[in-house]
């Protein structure tokens, strides 16, 4: 019987597990959360408002399918590796510490499998803003998680800002947990929005109904929605007391003279999403893209460039839960050994192809524009962990990325550049361009640096451990390893 | 690691009103002060629900929740003597002792 391991129990991972089980595989799911559902399904009956939860019936189906699998929740998977053909045991080996988050005495778990589905998802991408380290500034995803999972609001008067349709459910959730939402500020201007969303509207059937539902919620809660607008400064002494919003041009540069102050005690920022690529990178799966977005390369069957490894969901492109469900199903069937033309894949393949078009629309309409760096001051903290200001990064922009990091400590704190990596890379690229007088911010600027041994521009994506674990826990596995570098 | 200052109080009262161990509620000790939350909430959820927004010392000012999903490590606390626990990831257990941390 084929053994399939699934890393991540959000929509993609759960769909993969369900499909692999249906195809007769023996399935093990590992997930860092206290319970399955990922960032999308967080509702807690009796604790949080069911109106914040979407696709509950599908979640219930997936949960009941999981009864046939081995599920490790609370699993900090810190290592994945491939065995050479001919070696004893499974082709893929995963090592995890399982127990309460960051606990001291978690159980060491080693999972061996014939195939792996990487469904590690994405986290929010919040761009740095002067004042963004003040208590009360959170990511939009934090506001959403705290509302959906904990039933609490990040503030009493919350301003939501950034880019993309995700800001809408966040605003709705905040209103449902009792916050006044003083505004939703979408950075993209009408041109980009129209370019992304207007062509071929029939493709958006279903999605437009969802957006209309959120628009209705905003209207009911009297939440103002502004486009071409963003937070350019957060005000406050020891915590958030207000925010400066300004009109943004098509490149997200603030328009001088348009600034105004909005009183609030919380700011929820979400400018997009960053896929969690660590496991794919550790396994040597090819990653494509540049500092504006890197994703795992997969074929039509969601297979990565490593034959035993599949990937599904946000790690292959930011497309939302419906795309993740379809990709997960395809990956699960294929990992369990079904052929690409097996009829059980047909429905999921159709949905996935439709959702890939949706992902392209998202990027066209809401993708981060390069002018955002104009709202930074020289002393704005970029790396939150190590309190590294923009000035320090710009001063060392000419040296290779790795040397810059060691000199400034940018990206070397506990979050391992997961929060600031993309911003640091953008600031470095911009500084190099202005220093050399080159006008086009080409990828060669980044590509000249080889942060990744063996070539390829992986920037900050290569991390020695997949998840934070305590040193003592590394010894709990069958042999000590600290990853590949 | 634990500093002298308590967590920065935000708007309003700290809500230490839950009955001990009652169904649906948990009580944790935050810097020695009893704080009530609802069963199933994370430590970050309990702290925010009690009106706290910041509970960790950083190089420039205080920090609380930022990413809320275990990525940024801004919300670290010491729980029952174990340092470096992400408050947004750890579910609160009745009787947990939570102390602030300072990272400079």
Automatic annotation (TrEMBL), chain A:
One Pfam family of this chain: Pyr_redox_2
FAD/NAD(P)-binding domain sequence ranges: 3-328
This protein's record includes keyword Transport: no
InterPro entries named among the record's database cross-references: BFD-like_2Fe2S-bd_dom_sf, FAD/NAD-bd_sf, FAD/NAD-binding_dom, Metab_Enz_Cyan_OpOx_G3PDH, Opine_Oxase_asu/HCN_bsu
Signal peptide annotation: 1-22
Keywords: Oxidoreductase, Signal
Protein name as it appears in the record: FAD-dependent oxidoreductase
Organism encoding this protein: Agromyces lapidis
Lineage: Bacteria, Bacillati, Actinomycetota, Actinomycetes, Micrococcales
UniProtKB/TrEMBL annotation, chain B:
Region (Disordered): 1-23
InterPro entries: 2Fe-2S-bd_N, 2Fe-2S_ferredoxin-like_sf
Recorded superkingdom: Bacteria
Keyword Oxidoreductase listed: yes
SUPFAM superfamilies tied to this protein: 2Fe-2S ferredoxin-like
Keyword field contains Electron transport: no
Keywords: Oxidoreductase
Protein name: 2Fe-2S iron-sulfur cluster-binding protein
